[in-house]
Amino acid sequence: MATFTAPIASSNRFSTELHVALAPDTTFPRLIARHSYVHGLRALRRPAMVLLVIAVLAPMMAVQRVTITLVATAALSWCFVLAIQTLVAVGVIASAPARRVPLVPALDLWFAGHLPYSLWMLVAFGVMAGSQSGPLRLLVTAAVVPAVWTAIIVASFCRAVLGTTGLGACWRTAVHLIAVWAIALSYIAWAAGGWFQLLPPR
Amino acid sequence: MTRPWGRPLAALVVVTGIAIGTAIDRTPTRSMQRAGEYFVLAGDFHVHAFPGDGALAPWTLRDEAGHAGLDVLAVTNHNRTFTAHLARWLAGMSNGPIVIAGQEITNPRYHLIAIGIERTVNASQPAAGAIADVHAQGGVAIAAHPTLMFRGYDDDATVAALDGTEAAHPADVPEEQEMFAAFFERARRLKPSIAPIGSSDFHASPSLARCRTLVFAREPSASGVIDAIRSGRTVAVDQNGRQYGDPALIGLIAHTSPAGRSDEQAGWRQLSVALAWLGLLGMLLFA
Known about the structure:
Chain A is mostly helical.
């Protein structure tokens, strides 16, 4: 089982997140053994990476500047996004009785699948920062790409890490997708003054 | 086995970008501008903040207002005033732009900016009722981005009850800006003292104060600003620098161009942003 216990592609220069994004079905099984020993604070590194992406990009998009104060305050403001993602992930992971790793390593592996949304944010925020009239509708529409990409990764995660059947992976992926988008749209509707704001003008 | 160096190097690039951005960050100091008997204050009265649908928290927003050359801003989240009151409370703890609490009263038939209010205005009533509620609280009511899709302003009596209208607002297409200007002309016929307002409707982008209002206030305070809007002593400035309002007021500032956004270290700022962005990309892709 040397393949399972050796650090993944130790000679490879590319990140685990990239491997997961491009080949989740082969990468997750190879990661399981190594990540089964990830506990405590070490398990925070991937969520911290997601928070760093949000915290740097939010001021970059909004004020076209990045300072330590802006990054710190953006991280404080938007850490609730990670909290929601974690809660949804815990719900999905805890619902699988046959999972192959404990909860914390499973969460670590879950967050290894963040690349599609992180790349989308990077591209979207970069475009917004470089444009006076950001093509907001186009960028929001383009969010379907990371949504579908992430669904593929989550399904693979469920099969490899949670030990579910193909059907179990499907419904967990659907629950995840619905939960994330329902929460996101509810927040947007709340912040925008009502659900009618999300509908096209009549 | 060599330790991967891609991500540490990329992290260093991010840190360098943030360090440069921090080192060059100076909030410009503003001196209050006078024109005749008035203080001329640059304002943005349609700004969204976090928590809400704005990207920036109130404490960050106020700092950014300083960068944008604003003397006054109103935080106007949709149908809520909590964030606006938080912003006003924080503003009281330091020097900087005046912050006025407000609300974007958001109804399918109209959007209405209320500033100088204490309580959240019910958004499920007709525009005339919302305007009356704003006035009852001592605030001023401003038609927000009044395009033809907002039928709540079809009634002339409602328009005549407004204190101001967004004559300048960031427009995706030129026709939109023409609609704002046309609505202002209609409102001015119905109520000659109506205040032209320029606002950015800032959420996350485009820039804060991209369109702005020059307020001719008798005193540089929130009440002075609200009094000036109520009396129609404003000039709206659109994203192209075009001014809307009383020619006499425009004449007062003809030779004293009010300060806009200052960006003295644009090259370093852009380098800082580029490094942070590239560093993040590297951290995502490399081990």
